[in-house]
């Protein structure tokens, strides 16, 4: 929404009897905060009484129409949620104002990404309004709910107040006094304006987070007069009878909050426990049920997983352990997904494997036949394995004579975790409860006992191939070398998924092959190259990275090399380029290898970052050869075993790529294009 626009709630959802309004912001310093407040206004634009003012010390309406919920921490700030039951809002209430205020000298100009969102009773996100530059105001009206022709609407307001919470509340008829802070910085209590009959018109009693201040020896408090009180009016003060409306600025602790457990052996309660899983069958049933249920409760997540399979966007229902007739022996697929769109159904059968177990071709074939006879659209296999392009995991026979064709799709547990990471860390699902469900799902998938860890085994050919390379007995055409090449490609695809989930960016394998080259032919060529050179190599294309990230495994030396080539800048001088590169790598590992790339086949100067830091000019070629770029590389030992244990090859590759990106690539500039020839080093004097 834009400032001043409005929307009818009934036009957005059928479940707007109750709504959740969320106010959010972020703070560059990490310590910014604000307090939300709600005012119920009559036709005259004023509160009926001070009881219509809801804030942190008066959070709940007696009739349940307003309920200020707890703060929800976000990735870089907080989000305050307010629950409204619009069906019980008194008929004399014409408008509901939703605002927030800061205390002390703080103002909203210090916060970023100010926004208000509204969700319906089932948590579906309906609208969003972002406030641009609020300026140095200490209170803001984010929006308001109001009645028109018996229906509720929402208006995006975004109006700021220099006078803070007291000025905002006073404008709407609330009698409020904010006292000065004492010398110790303790926030003073707020006192109501006495009514004409001498009685106080206070807010509903509510437990205050701080005790009311003690009266001074004279029996009175030094209070600031209320905005409406005449200047010549003076009367003795009593201790505050209603909750405070100002409080001391709080800074969240820098260290994480300590657990309330008595020792480290206490484990938090989880929504999806894994301690009772004893067999592969238990793991398959639990993993299928957990995943399918979260897909229905978090529609954006469910849509992410099914869109790639040609499923429509619609109402999704999922089922487990469904019995389907098949000859004399009924079959029970692990799960069924059904999506309704415009009165039509899209149905897929789900076959799940965990703990590294392989899919069975005859079992998948049976489900393909059942789906074809019943008019279902797809069969989805789900396992730790990663499918390769042009190379199906299981061979099934598809009867082309059938009018109705069934599609066979594969989904890796690594892809499931990747999509959950993207939504949790970077994109969001617009609802705290749904975020919690995704977090619990991700915790379950990553638990060592769930069996859903993705690709974790380089296969039975890994050790024989390494031994054959070391003793030079591995011959070209050996099928074991082809198996290692295929598993290496699976590993690289999984590394891309994990890195992309952490970064929130696209990370894809980059394959430099001729157009139209058959995948089988390409892999056979790589297998022959492995037999000759004893090396595996792959390139990753990371969005916004200055070049391709290369990862290579030398099976002869047992070392991993991660590297990136960055082009030389378009303008400037070589010495300036070298100094700037070394300066940007100030926090990179000291053992980082830096090599200058030059024209032709000649090799440029090279050295470790530790040696080059005091003298960047050592990167310049001595013979004046033109510099084309720089190559940055890190070396580390690779795991010896074929699995994902601490000493495993798979984990060593994953760790090497993540370490290289986080310690080297993040410090580099974005990619640039070369347009002009580069000057030679001999043309420049120091």
Gap between N and C termini: 57 Å
> Order of strands across the biggest sheet?
19-20-21-22-25-23-24
What ranges have pLDDT less than 50 throughout 5 or more consecutive residues?
178-254, 672-686
Strand content: 15-25%
Summarize the amount of helix as a percent range. 10-25%
Number of strands: 25
Radius of gyration: 32 Å
Average pLDDT, rounded to a whole number, is 80
Structural class: alpha+beta
Instruction: Supply the number of helical segments.
Output: 12
Explain what the structure shows:
It is a single chain. The chain is an alpha+beta fold and 686 residues long. 23% of the residues lie in helices and 24% in strands. It has twelve helices and 25 strands. The chain has helices at residues 164-171, 280-297, 299-307, 361-374, 413-427, 432-446, 462-470, 479-503, 519-533, 574-584, 609-612, 649-663, and strands at residues 6-8, 18-26, 35-41, 53-54, 66-73, 77-85, 95-101, 112-119, 125-131, 139-148, 151-161, 177-178, 190-191, 315-320, 335-341, 344-352, 378-383, 407-412, 507-510, 535-542, 549-554, 559-567, 593-598, 606-608, 627-637. It has a seven-stranded antiparallel beta sheet. Strand 16 (344-352), helix 4 (361-374) and strand 17 form a beta-alpha-beta unit. The chain starts with 5 loop residues before the first strand and ends in a 23-residue tail after the last helix. Mean pLDDT is 80; it is low at 178-254 and 672-686.
């Amino acid at each position: 929404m834009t400032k001043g626009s409005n929307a009818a709630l009934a036009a957005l959802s059928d479940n707007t009897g109750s709504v959740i309004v969320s106010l959010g912001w972020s703070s560059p310093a990490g310590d910014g905060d604000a307090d939300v407040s709600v005012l119920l206004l009559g036709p005259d634009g004023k509160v009926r009484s001070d009881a219509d003012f809801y804030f942190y010390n008066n959070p709940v309406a007696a009739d349940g129409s307003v309920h200020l919920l707890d703060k929800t921490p976000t990735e870089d700030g907080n989000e305050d949620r307010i629950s409204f039951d619009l069906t019980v809002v008194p008929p004399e209430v014409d408008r509901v104002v939703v605002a927030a205020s800061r205390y002390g000298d703080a103002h909203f100009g210090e916060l970023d990404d100010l926004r208000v969102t509204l969700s319906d009773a089932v948590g579906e996100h309906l609208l969003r309004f972002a406030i641009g530059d609020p300026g140095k105001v200490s209170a803001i009206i984010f929006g308001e709910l109001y009645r028109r022709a018996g229906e509720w609407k929402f208006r995006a307001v975004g109006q700021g107040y220099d006078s803070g919470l007291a000025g905002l509340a006073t404008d709407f008829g609330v009698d409020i006094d904010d006292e000065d802070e004492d010398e110790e910085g303790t926030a003073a209590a707020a006192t109501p304006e006495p009514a004409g009959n001498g009685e106080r018109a206070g807010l509903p009693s509510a437990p205050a987070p701080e005790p009311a201040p003690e009266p001074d020896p004279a029996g009175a408090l030094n209070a600031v007069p209320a905005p409406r009180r005449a200047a010549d009016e003076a009367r003795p003060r009593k201790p505050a009878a209603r909750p405070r409306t100002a409080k001391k600025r709080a800074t969240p602790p820098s260290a994480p909050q300590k657990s309330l457990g008595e020792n480290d052996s206490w484990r938090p309660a989880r929504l999806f426990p894994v301690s009772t899983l004893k067999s592969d069958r238990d793991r398959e049933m639990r993993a299928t049920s957990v995943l399918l249920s979260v897909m229905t409760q978090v529609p954006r997540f469910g849509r992410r997983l099914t869109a790639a399979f040609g499923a429509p966007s619609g109402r999704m229902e999922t089922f487990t352990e469904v019995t389907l007739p098949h000859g004399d022996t009924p079959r029970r697929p692990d799960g069924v997904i059904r999506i309704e769109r415009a009165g039509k159904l899209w149905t897929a059968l789900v076959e799940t494997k965990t703990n590294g177990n392989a899919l069975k071709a005859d079992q998948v074939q049976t489900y393909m036949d059942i789906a074809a006879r019943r008019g279902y659209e797809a069969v989805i296999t789900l396992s730790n394995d990663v499918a390769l392009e042009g190379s199906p995991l299981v061979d099934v026979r598809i009867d082309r004579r059938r009018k109705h064709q069934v599609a066979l799709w594969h989904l890796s547990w690594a892809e499931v975790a990747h999509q959950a990471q993207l939504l949790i860390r970077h994109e969001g699902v617009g609802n705290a409860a749904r975020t919690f469900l995704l977090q619990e799902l991700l915790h379950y998938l990553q638990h060592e006992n769930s069996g859903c860890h993705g690709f974790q085994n380089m296969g039975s050919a890994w050790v024989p191939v390494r031994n054959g390379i070391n003793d030079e007995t591995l011959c070209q055409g050996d099928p074991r070398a082809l198996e290692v090449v295929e598993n290496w490609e699976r590993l690289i695809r999984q590394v891309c998924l994990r890195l992309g989930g952490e970064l929130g960016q696209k990370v894809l394998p980059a394959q430099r092959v001729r157009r139209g080259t058959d995948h089988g032919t390409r892999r056979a060529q790589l297998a022959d190259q492995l037999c000759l050179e004893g090396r595996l190599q792959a390139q990753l294309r990371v969005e916004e990275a200055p070049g391709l990230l290369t990862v290579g495994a030398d099976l002869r030396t047992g070392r991993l090399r991660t590297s990136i080539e960055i082009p030389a800048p378009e303008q400037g001088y070589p010495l300036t380029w070298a100094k700037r590169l070394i300066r940007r790598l100030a926090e990179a590992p000291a053992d980082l290898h830096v090599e200058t790339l030059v024209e032709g086949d000649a090799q440029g100067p090279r050295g470790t970052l530790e040696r080059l830091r005091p003298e960047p000019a050592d990167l310049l070629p001595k013979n004046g050869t033109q510099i084309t770029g720089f190559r940055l590389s890190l070396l580390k030992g690779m795991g010896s075993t074929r699995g994902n244990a601490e000493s495993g090859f798979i984990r060593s590759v994953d760790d090497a790529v993540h370490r290289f990106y986080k310690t080297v690539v993040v410090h580099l500039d974005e990619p640039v294009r070369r347009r002009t020839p580069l000057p030679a080093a001999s043309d420049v004097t120091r």
